[in-house]
Fold:
Amino acid sequence: MGGEELLAYYKHRAHEYEQIYEKPERQADLARVRTWLRDALVGQRILEVACGTGYWTAELASAAGGIVATDASPEVLALARQKQYPPDRVRFELADAYALAHVSGAFTAGFAAFWWSHVPHERQAAFLASLHGRLGVGAAVVLLDNRYLAGSSTPIARQDAAGNSYQLRRLADGTEHEVLKNFPTPADLEAVLTPVAQVLSITEFVYYWGVCYRVA
Ligand SMILES: C[S@@+](CC[C@H](N)C(=O)[O-])C[C@H]1O[C@@H](n2cnc3c(N)ncnc32)[C@H](O)[C@@H]1O
Structure:
């Protein structure tokens, strides 16, 4: 799956996307994630990458110093803009995660939820360079994503030569999509992030993992 197919998938999925946050068995874990996330980003001026329908934007808006929330899909941004936010705290911009240089604003932190898992191994360095280049040395970075849980996660259908894994996902309109979705271990995250991060901290929840660090 290339970047364009991923965008097309999320365009089709936009209206049903937030159902994943309604799974009853995940509510206790999500409550822990919300507390962890607010603690990590309170008071920060945040550049949010791949914000989707603004679920976490809305969650963080009152705690953050301000958020510029970006996504490469106009369709999901249109949904994100429909949510209620505290006045003057949130702005949306269309932006590719691999080309963040033109996003306007001054930031003390970067944040991406459920995006890292869609970054192919061979593009991870490019994404980090794009984000870090826009933030600068010492800025905080927070990444949040899924852990793989057999019986709960969509099974992995195949792996490619670069070690990326893929799931087959069916949407409400009946269409089936092959989606690149990686599930890094803490050791995988450390290996990629240690060369570009300071004070790296990895937190494992039941269904999710979270990473905090400062740009080196
Ligand atoms: C799994 S969703 C995450 C949405 C949101 N962060 C959340 O956690 O609810 C992934 C998002 O990545 C966006 N996306 C896909 N390719 C992108 C790219 N190259 N640059 C920026 N966003 C992209 C999709 O439009 C989609 O909104």
